[in-house]
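FAQ
Q: What does a multi-component entry look like?
A: The components come first, one per line:
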Amino acid sequence: MPQLAADNVKWARVDEIWAEYERTHNLTGTARQAVGIDPETGEVFLGESAADIVARLKQEGRFRPLYYRWSDDPYYTHKGGRR
Amino acid sequence: MTGEVDSRGTPIVRLTFGGRDWVAVIDTGFDGDLELPEVLAPHFPKSSAGPSRTTLAAGRVIEEELFVVEFPFDGEIIEAQTSFAPTDEIVIGTRLLRSYRLEVNFVTRTVLLERIPRSCFAVLVSLRASRPTMNLRPTRGVPFEPRPL
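Then the predicted structure of the entire assembly, as tokens:
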């Protein structure tokens, strides 16, 4: 499963970037935010939601797919009921 | 917007897309906006936001592609985040309903989704903060009167 291995490497990099961001930024008292991370460049984008980040990046002409999580939760979605 | 509790005891609303009716399950254990059947993908102008991680009921973690779609809901076109799955039903999560009051009556098998205007929401939050012991139950068409518990 080479694709799965590649995905795991990407997510490991994403987690590493976020850990570094948390270490170097004071997020105390800030509200829960959606976080978009580019594992290639190490850039971190914050917004109200993934849709908010997408809209902003498109407006600025620098949209590309990012890896998403929340500032307080590595899992963007919880499907606890139906699935 | 109204719906029903189906024969399995699941709250649903019925939505129409692409010339057919779809069952949309209201899933309060799902904190996203939407999950859509894969066959509906061609009906929505969409853009991939990118991958995200999702936890399922048994604690299993999967990776899903997150899309931003223009979704017709309750008489409006709203921007919603969704994933596509090989299912035949739509799943509505709590994030899509964050401006709604949801009432499920399992006795009468009815579902009511009532949009709460933002101005009303601000008043409710303010009242809740200042009078935490009040029972606040706004109802459409009925003047709002806080009742002591």
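Q: Is there any commentary attached?
A: Sometimes. For this entry: The interface with chain A takes residues 25, 27-32, 35, 47-57, 61, 63-64, 66, 68, 79-81, 83, 85, 91, 93 of chain B (CB under 8 Å).
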